[in-house]
Structure to design on (351 residues):
């Protein structure tokens, strides 16, 4: 085993111990699709615990996620998080009504850890198991704070692995509108940050430097503006070619110009989709939606075009288990359950 010290930048909801109400279901969710190990416990619409052990420090020195290392960490941290989460939620494992885990998409060896633990608990306690799509977790996370009703909307999922726009009719009713044909938006942030010698993950680093920068200084490409799909590799290449020509103090301006180019494309395409598909609501989720500039520009554009706008709280935008427990609770209510023989699927699609 690696002797790493776990990092727990988690948020914990300390619930009052309430009388056990059997009509309100308690769901335990596990998320281990990539480099965050996470456990959350949801009772009805109340999030009792949400624990995350980040491995960022471990993978940072390799400049990206090392799958073998990630799964070994999940194996070490998941039992610790289960212990912390049940303690924070003030429940016994035997009170849990259903166990859920991310079953894809993600790294196969990482997915297997969370899914195997959830299946084992479900079998051991004789409770249902639910295999949850990680992307559905992101997709519905804007509804976790507040009303749990999934209203029709146009949704943008922008993460390290995905950039997709989806037409949502309701729970399980998803239609793919557009996707990236090359890099995901978060991947572009990470790769450009690496070129600039900034840390991993790159998104928050670029955002930090962009705050003091002039976004108009460098004219970077906005690709495929007339398509429903996305492309960010041209933008990344433009930065690569520009870099050797730059001298002096350019970091903040380059970060701001790069961030602006990504935000311009995302805002333009999602507003165009919302108009085309005639919805009232626009939602955004995934790690890149932590970005303040993206959130501000999307909110402004939605105000201007008279769309309601919902985003998840920033801590719910990056990978977490609360979104997995949330989708599991909606699916359980709707009568879904998975077989414990259901396999993980590293390429699981949403629509
Ligand atoms: O959703 P997420 O935690 O993991 C995936 O499912 O991929 O997203 C991680 C991605 C990383 O690429 C990271 O650089 C990006 O989200 N990210 C950001 C910000 N915070 C995280 N990108 C831009 N601005 C941010 N503030
Ligand atoms: Zn994710």
């Amino acid at each position: 085993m690696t002797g790493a010290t776990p990092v727990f930048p988690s948020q914990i909801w300390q619930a009052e111990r309430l009388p056990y109400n059997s009509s309100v279901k308690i769901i335990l969710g596990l998320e281990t699709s990539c480099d965050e190990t996470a456990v959350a416990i949801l009772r009805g619409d109340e999030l009792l615990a949400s624990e995350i052990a980040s491995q960022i420090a471990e993978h940072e020195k390799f400049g990206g996620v090392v799958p073998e290392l990630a799964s070994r960490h999940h194996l070490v941290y998941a039992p610790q998080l289960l212990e912390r989460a049940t303690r924070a939620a003030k429940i016994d494992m035997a009170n849990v009504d259903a166990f859920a885990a991310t079953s894809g998409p993600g790294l196969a060896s990482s997915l297997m850890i969370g899914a195997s633990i959830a299946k084992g608990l479900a079998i051991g306690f004789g409770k249902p198991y639910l295999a949850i799509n990680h992307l559905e977790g992101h997709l519905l996370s804007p509804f976790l704070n507040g009303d749990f009703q999934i209203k029709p909307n146009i949704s943008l999922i922008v993460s390290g692995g995905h950039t997709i726009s989806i037409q949502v009719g309701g729970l399980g009713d998803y239609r793919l509108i557009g996707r990236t044909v090359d890099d995901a938006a978060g991947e572009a942030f990470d790769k450009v940050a690496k070129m600039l010698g900034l840390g991993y993950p790159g998104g928050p680093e670029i955002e930090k430097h962009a705050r003091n920068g002039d976004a108009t200084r460098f004219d970077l490409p906005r690709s495929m503006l007339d398509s429903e799909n996305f492309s960010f590799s041209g933008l990344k290449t433009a930065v690569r070619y520009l870099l050797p020509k730059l001298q002096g103090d350019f970091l903040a301006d380059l970060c701001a110009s790069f961030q602006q180019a990504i935000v311009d494309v995302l805002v333009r395409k999602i507003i165009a989709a919302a108009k085309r598909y005639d919805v009232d609501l626009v939602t955004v989720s995934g790690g890149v939606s932590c970005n303040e500039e993206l959130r501000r520009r999307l909110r402004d554009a939605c105000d201007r075009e008279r769309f309601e706008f919902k985003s998840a709280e920033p801590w719910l935008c990056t990978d977490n288990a609360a979104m997995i427990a949330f989708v599991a609770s909606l699916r359980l209510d709707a009568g879904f359950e998975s077989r414990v023989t259901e396999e993980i699927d590293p390429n699981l699609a949403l629509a």
